Amino acid sequence: MFDLPCLKVFVPESDYLLAMKVLAARADTSDLDDIKFLVKNLKLGSVEEVLEIMRNYYPHKDVKPETIFMLEEIFENDYA
User: Fold this and answer.
1) Which of 6, 19, 60, 67 could cross-link with 54 by S-S, CB 3.0 to 4.6 Å?
2) Do residues 23 and 58 touch, judged by C-beta distance below 8 A?
3) For residues 58 and 33, what is the distance between their CA atoms, to the nearest angstrom?
4) What is the per-residue pLDDT for 79?
């Protein structure tokens, strides 16, 4: 994003951002909107595709059950 003499700022890939958001998935934040945006941007079609991306970056981490439920609702309501 920036490449200055004393500072370099990198922007992560969309799939990595999605993995971080899914793993965090905090209530009362913009995480849900961010996840929806990234799912659409990455043209994902299922919860399993989202979880596969998350597992690629964080193979030893578990997704909270409430996050899986939230993902299911995203695909049922927004992409049905």
Assistant:
1) 19
2) yes
3) 21
4) 62
Q: How far apart are CA 51 and CA 43, in angstroms?
A: 14
Joined tokens for residue 56:
């690629």
Could you report the per-residue pLDDT of 22-52, keeping only the tens digit for each?
A: 999 988 889 999 999 999 999 999 999 999 9
Q: How many domains does one find in the chain?
A: 1
Which pLDDT band, with edges at 50, 70 and 90, does 8 fall under?
A: confident
Encode 28-41 in three state secondary structure.
CCCHHHHHHHHHHH
Helix segments in the chain, DSSP class H: 14-24, 31-41, 47-57, 65-78
